[in-house]
Input
Amino acid sequence: MQTNLLALVGRILLALIFVVSGFGKITNIGGTAGYFGSIGLPLPIVTAWLVALLELLGGLAIVFGFKTRIAALALAAFSIASGMIAHFDLADQMQTIMLMKNTAMAGGLLLLAAYGPGSWSLDRR
Output
């Protein structure tokens, strides 16, 4: 039981940043698209919707343990890509920390993809 509880709490904590961020992007899609355009991303409104949905739905999939390995791999790739696009400024200590945060999240997501969500998940039902 302890392992199952730890896996569930770990999934929730790992997914929380994606769920909150995805929800925030959806509720301010215009601002998100504006920011994406300002950093040179193509088709900012389309990209904003894709990112918002990936974060929200991928995060919820992790929380509930549904298609966990696929969601974890997608969010790991997203974490690395977004870190390289939005936070790769090694001259700025805060951006370097944000890049390391994204890298650490990707590491946790890769472990989740490798070992699965645990018994307390929809994948195990």
Notes: The longest helix spans residues 2-27. The two ends are 16 Å apart (CA to CA). The chain is about 80% helix and 0% strand.
